[in-house]
Specification:
Layout: H1 4-8, E1 18-23, H2 27-39, E2 43-49, H3 52-61, E3 66-69, H4 78-88, E4 93-98, H5 102-112, E5 116-119, H6 124-135, H7 143-154, H8 170-180, H9 185-192, H10 196-210, H11 215-231
Helix pairs in contact: 4-5, 8-10, 8-11, 9-10
Length: 234
């Protein structure tokens, strides 16, 4: 006899629904995505988590087909989480769902093991298209970023970031971008839910990797870099 949970995983015609998990630290975002996923006839939200530790435990006991993952999470960077999950569970399709600009992070997400990247501010139709593409074994990126990456590979060179930014870890790059937006140490620490000391350690590591003379030089570079992206033609 089927349990209620088993029935929930079936569509009206008896086919198995794709099971989707959500990893996002914003309760309202998780709730909205759950309602949206459950509204699709062939998908069901199997569970939600607000941090990487909780998600890791749930994955071991209740493996989803697809996982939506934010980048900025309270206990660690989402891309680092994706790297770990991809190494242990390569069959798990992960789709990054983030407010961070796709142009900055899409290649890093794919390199980490994600199957796609989508911004949180897109339409429900685009959410659904991305979810279906990734659930079906494909890869999802916006048309603009897909073209940029394909052009880079066709020219025989991997997409790179100028000034040595490709040497930064995902967390360092996240902090670098926040510095470029004019946020101070305390603001960055609050946004990423880490300590001021941790931010300072990352800043020092960035200084060494980027071969800059001091922390102020890192900040100036970050501000110029972010500003150049805002002024770049669409």
């Amino acid at each position: 006899m089927e349990t209620d949970i088993m029935k929930d995983d079936k569509t009206n015609n008896g086919q198995t629904r794709k099971r989707v998990a959500i990893l996002d630290d914003h309760t309202m975002m998780r709730g909205g995505m759950k309602v949206f996923i459950d509204s699709l006839p062939d998908f069901v939200c199997c569970w939600e988590a607000g941090d990487c530790r909780t998600a890791s435990g749930k994955i071991e006991t209740d493996m989803p087909d697809v996982m939506l993952v934010d980048i900025t999470l309270p206990d660690r960077n989402g891309l680092e989480f994706i790297k770990d999950m991809h190494a242990v569970h390569p069959q798990l399709a992960m789709l990054v769902l983030s407010m961070h600009d796709e142009a900055y992070y899409a290649h890093r997400a794919l390199k980490a093991g994600a199957k796609g990247y989508i911004m949180k501010n897109v339409s429900h139709d685009e959410y659904e298209a991305a979810l279906r593409k990734v659930a079906g074994g494909g890869t999802w990126l916006s048309e603009k970023v897909s073209e940029q990456i394909l052009q880079a590979y066709s020219s025989g060179s991997l997409p790179r970031q100028e000034g040595g930014l490709d040497t930064l870890t995902d967390r360092e790059f996240e902090i670098f971008q926040l510095m470029g937006e004019g946020r101070g140490t305390h603001e960055i620490a609050e946004a990423l839910r880490i300590s001021n000391k941790t931010v300072d350690v990352h800043r020092m590591n960035m200084r060494h990797k980027l071969k800059l003379e001091d922390g102020a030089a890192v900040t100036r570079f970050a501000i110029r870099w972010v500003e150049s992206r805002r002024l770049a033609p669409a």
